[in-house]
Amino acid sequence: MGLKEQMNKVGKMDDAIYFDFILPTAKEHDDFSNQFPIDEILDLLKPYVNPTMSINPFNHASLQESEMQSVLNTWYSNVETLLFDIKHAYGFLLFFYNAGIPDERVTGSGTESNKYFPDFKHQDWYNQKSFRFYAEIIISKIFSVLDNYGMILFFHYDKDFIINQFLLQDSNKKKQNIYFYTPIKDSKLKMDALVRKKLQLILDNEVYKKTKIIRNDIVHNKTPLKLSSNLAFVKSENGFGMGLKIDYIKSKEVFEIIENLINDVLIESTKNIFSEQGATHNESN
Description:
Number of strands: 4
Oligomer: single chain
Shape: globular
Order of helices and strands: HEEHHHHHHHHEEH
Strand content: 5-15%
Number of helices: 10
Strand order of the largest sheet: 1-2
């Protein structure tokens, strides 16, 4: 095996355990990434990005409105960047998912060589790790999009808050952290009642609640998408006692969670905020 071939192999060479660093071709990645519905989302956002404004340089209100629009465009730009990042990661996610990750059996029997994932061949470890990497990126960035939506809602419903938060120069004033749920739960915000009800339904959606926990663990704790095991007080056929507690979300379930997060949370939130019946068409300032 030449140097180039050796550089494309990793693992414990003395035990002949190695796998290939594989990546999709450009066409494969394009085909997979194009399955992410970015156009549907961008079409809803398009009317709000960089709208034409007539500015009177001698009018304070006109200048302030221009400055606010500039800040708002920054948030829309953030959203667009995040969406293209998600699309890029989605192409890799589908590639490694379709490559096959036989993780239905998490633990093996005492006679099997693998204590965990007994059906894995060498290449499966690489596919699993790569799939997890891109799954974590997608979940984290979708929630970043939603948090940007939270800020955009404040732009449309509470301009005084935005002025105090961004336009007034006060180094001693701490900026408030805004998340997707912040404007929805803010009863003082004069949001259209029907829009608030629809967005609250998303917050109450089991997909949103479950994936929010996963996202917070990815960012702040240990990732739940990677197998972890520890001794714990568990219940068995013989009663209660100390045993091995294994936490792992199988790749099929992770993929379903991401698909539901995209369709039931990301797309529905975008429609409820930016469609003709959405929040940005029902401003109350």
